[in-house]
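Changelog-adjacent note: as of this version, every example in the card shows the full chain rather than a window. The one below runs 99 residues end to end.
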Amino acid sequence: MQRPAMLHDIDDPLRSAPVGAADRDEDLLVPVLRAGAPVGPAPTLAMSRALAGRELAGLSARTRRFLNPQPYPVGLDPRLHAMKMALIARARAAPSGDL
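Full-length structure tokens:
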């Protein structure tokens, strides 16, 4: 049986929650260059603006409101969470000034 994907809380590294079946993920950092060469056509400013508008429109009105907005859950993927925890452990084990 496959375990559900987990989302790790950015602020509390010991807190995690399963990713909902209806949730989706996507890489926020998309390369436009590799080894100095373009990977593909770069999006125009108008394309980036339109994408941002679509993404914001997809949020719940309760999340978009300014007064008492509903929190939007954000977390780290398991590999990045493991890297963060390893760095924290290394920093805690190092004598002061050794980092």
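Structural remarks: Residues 45-94 form one domain.
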